[in-house]
Amino acid sequence: MKSTSTSVPRRGILLGGTAAALSGILAGARPAAASVPLAKASPASAKLKFGANGKFKIVQFNDTQDGPRTDRRTLELMEAVLDAEKPGFVVINGDVIDGSPNSPLEVKQAINNVVQPMESRKIPWALTFGNHDEDSTSHGTKMTEAKILDFVRRYDYNLNTKEDDVYGSSNSQLLIASARSNKPAFGIWLLDSGRYAPDSVGGQDFEGLMSYDWIRPEQIDWYREASGATERRHGKVDSLMFFHIPLWEHHHMWFGSQFTSNEADHAKAVKKHGIVGVKNEEVYVGAFNSGLFAALQERGDVRGAYCGHDHINTYMGNYFGIELGYGPGTGFGPYGVGGAQEHSLRGARVFELDEHAKNVYTGTRTIFAKDLGINMDPARKPLDQPLPLPQD
């Protein structure tokens, strides 16, 4: 039986950037480490708080997915978006790196390349894990998600919370404090949507299914309990949720149906759900329907759930009161549209908040590299050398 205590179960929350370890975990603490980078101090300067004007922006980057010599245009895109939008928080929503690194150092270099745009600008950030972030373990790097999490938490402006016993390695709740107090005015949920389905369940393999992983029941239990505890402590806090692999409902919304997938149904769905953006590939969901969407409906505090994974899908819409959508693929390293238009959908998604507005969350939009003067040549343009790791 789950506790009815008002303390947040298992995983700590960050409220206004202060480590609020309601479950006994000091979420802002940094572990000792023998390798760079090492955080200089607890990131008090990285707190999440609405600006004096009551506004706050979140930027979602997705699928930066590259090796130790990241395509330089990925960084150019990230830097241009950050400089134009000046967000209060950034999420890299899964597949932060690919499987090309051949050593722990190369894993760290690949990650460091894509977090430096935020670190150098002192912008708070966090990541979720995707299906490719552990791929380098096949090369003997031994850089599991848990080890990657330990590494990224040493950065000054990283807000990922500490590993615990909930399934996955990047489940976190972050709260954004009001400009007028420390009371949370909005929230951010990060979930680890896993990697791949196991070889078999119940003696049956996954042949014929999209054999990606799915958000597990214990993660949903954690969300429901933490959401309830937050409501008891602060009142209901509207939030956005980020995870890498889309839900089945992302597919259902596009077609307006569960068991047919045709353009006539889609045309009706566009009107019904207010869909904007494009779908250029299948919705590559987990093998099983996790039930997360039903839990979000039950709790009623998540305004939108956004994923990545499918690099060339950019759509979003309102599915029975909850926005479901994609952030565009950000990285110039992995697959794109193809041909001369290979990089035409590289981009980011921006979310706007205003605590003076009735619903705080006021909308979302996409930004594309092609509109920022970035080179769209299909050929790779890797860094000459990985960016230097911060020194102790």
UniProtKB/TrEMBL annotation:
Residues covered by the Calcineurin-like phosphoesterase domain: 56-312
CDD domains cross-referenced by the UniProt entry: MPP_Dcr2 (cd07383)
InterPro entries to which the protein is assigned, alphabetical: Calcineurin-like_PHP, Metallo-depent_PP-like, TAT_signal
Organism name: Paeniglutamicibacter terrestris
Annotated PROSITE patterns: TAT
Coiled-coil regions listed: none
Identification of the protein by name: Phosphoesterase
Gene3D superfamilies per record: 3.60.21.10
